[in-house]
């Protein structure tokens, strides 16, 4: 007999833990090699993890909803069919999956604050050892974003105890710690006269008849990421209107032939991505990251595309997008979006983005002010592409009203490294590229 350990995978070099959100197999089930066996959630990806070998699921060691360090053994496979199956270890029968959300519960009036409010993040001085223990190593391997926030506010992560695995300080911990105002009252590593952060507000209480549901793991992680991004980057947003009439005509003329030749549906987004990649070449600071007082100018142009899911939001990445033709971008875009919705993305496909595009216009929104996807420095928002009356110069020099296909674009950028003039020039470049797109570019 032979047993194979199934481990919590490393979902990126800065990720120290993952949440096992759902078991797709139960003890005693036969499993094929590469068959999905459980689902995992991190702030990077919500994905299915395949079995490393064929066999029978012999043990489940980690319950649904439990967060464990990477490389933790979560289950074991017996590789000989029909071998004895052990009872689950360190886990009761798997709990209900957090997605879809758990059954709604009707709130009771006036619950006690002590029972309703969770305890504040336990960030305190701790672990005075030599730093060689597993706990010390995991705790100090907080994400780059957490370390950056800590550095900006004079906080020493190595002297803190967080709520993550082995006391690791998470984004929720450090943002909550700063918001509580504790950073200004003798906290470890905080200099005198430190940052004067705001104070935490009391949690709202449910009223009679209200419905209370816990956030899904993905929603909680998105929440942490968005709040941390606001704390990290100096957000500014600019807008521009872009005329898509030329693109609309090219698309209408070439669409049937393109779809017959490639088998791919041709939308406006590949044209936008193509224009953006050219803009990032012209304005490289838009494709950078901030590392303390250094700016990292990325040579790769990897475009993240925000995909709305029923259970949250995910940003798969088109790697080396500037090297792809319009048809290549279309294939990559459609493939990533489809597999994101089917939970078939690999961890590598949601990492190493250098610039993000979000498209609220698909739901009819005219414009928006998106939050930067850290550690990037800019994000492009695409509004609804629709026909509008526009004033244009006529052939005789007089103004005339014409029907044009237009959209508002927004760019949220990090004012620490990008000035408004550069962001506006980038937008103007994208506008010109789209409005003059050549027919031969298809």
Jot down its keywords.
alpha+beta, four-stranded antiparallel beta sheet, 21 strands, seven-stranded mixed beta sheet, 442 residues, globular, 24% helix, 24% strand, OB fold (Dihydrolipoamide Acetyltransferase, E2P), 3 domains, Chloramphenicol Acetyltransferase
Q: Using DSSP, what is the number of strands?
A: 21
CATH architect. name of the largest domain: 2-Layer Sandwich
What is the N-to-C order of secondary-structure elements (H for helix, E for strand)? EEEEEEEEEHHHHEHEHHEEEEEEHEEEEH
Summarize the main sheet: 7 strands, mixed
Tally the structural domains: 3
Structural class: alpha+beta
* CATH homologous superfamily annotation of the largest domain: Chloramphenicol acetyltransferase-like domain
From the spread of the alpha carbons, the general shape counts as globular
Low-confidence stretches are: 82-139, 184-199
Q: Number of helical segments?
A: 9
Q: How much helix, percentage-wise, in residues?
A: 10-25%
Q: Whole-Å distance between the termini?
A: 57 Å
Mean of pLDDT? 80
Estimate what percentage of residues fall within beta strands. Answer: 15-25%
Q: Taking Cα atoms only, what radius of gyration do you get, to the nearest Å?
A: 25 Å
**CATH domain topology of the largest domain:** Chloramphenicol Acetyltransferase
User: In CATH's first tier, which class of the largest domain applies?
Assistant: Alpha Beta
């Amino acid at each position: 007999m032979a047993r194979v350990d199934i481990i919590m995978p490393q979902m990126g070099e800065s990720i120290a833990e993952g949440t096992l959100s759902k078991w797709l197999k139960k003890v005693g089930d036969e499993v094929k090699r590469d068959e999905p066996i459980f689902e995992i959630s991190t702030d990077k990806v919500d994905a299915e993890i395949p079995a490393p070998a064929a066999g029978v699921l012999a043990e489940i060691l980690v319950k649904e909803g439990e967060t464990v360090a990477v490389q933790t053994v979560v289950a074991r496979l017996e590789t000989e069919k029909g071998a004895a199956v052990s009872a689950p270890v360190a886990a009761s029968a798997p709990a209900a999956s957090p997605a879809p959300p758990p059954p709604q519960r009707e709130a009771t009036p006036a619950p006690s604050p002590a029972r309703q409010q969770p305890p504040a993040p336990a960030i305190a001085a701790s672990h005075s050892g030599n730093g060689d223990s597993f706990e010390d190593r995991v705790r100090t391997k907080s994400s780059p974003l957490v370390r950056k926030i800590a550095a900006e506010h004079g906080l020493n992560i190595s002297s803190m105890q967080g709520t993550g695995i082995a006391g690791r300080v998470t984004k929720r911990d450090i943002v909550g710690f700063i918001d509580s105002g504790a950073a200004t009252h003798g906290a470890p590593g905080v200099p005198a006269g430190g940052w004067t952060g705001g104070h935490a507000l009391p949690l709202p209480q449910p009223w009679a008849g209200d419905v209370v549901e816990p956030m899904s793991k993905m929603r909680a992680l998105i929440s942490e990421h968005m709040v941390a991004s606001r704390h990290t980057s100096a957000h500014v947003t600019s807008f521009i209107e872009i005329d898509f009439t030329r693109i609309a005509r090219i698309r209408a003329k070439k669409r049937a032939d393109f779809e017959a030749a490639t088998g791919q549906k041709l939308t406006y987004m590949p044209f936008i991505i193509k224009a953006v990649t050219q803009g990032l070449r012209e304005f490289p600071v838009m494709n950078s990251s901030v590392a303390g007082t250094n700016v990292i100018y990325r040579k790769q142009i990897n475009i993240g595309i925000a995909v709305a899911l029923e259970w949250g939001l995910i940003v798969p990445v088109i790697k080396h997008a500037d090297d792809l033709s319009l048809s290549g971008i279309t294939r990559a875009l459609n493939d990533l979006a489809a597999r994101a919705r089917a939970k078939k993305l690999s961890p590598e496909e949601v990492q190493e983005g250098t610039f993000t595009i979000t498209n609220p216009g698909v739901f009819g929104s005219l414009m928006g002010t998106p939050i930067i996807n850290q550690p990037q420095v800019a994000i492009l928002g695409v509004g609804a592409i629709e026909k509008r009356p526009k004033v244009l110069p006529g052939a005789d020099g007089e103004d005339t009203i014409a029907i044009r296909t237009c959209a508002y674009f927004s760019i949220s950028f990090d004012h620490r490294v990008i000035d408004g003039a550069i962001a506006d020039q980038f937008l103007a470049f994208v506008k010109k590229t789209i409005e003059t797109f050549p027919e031969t570019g298809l």
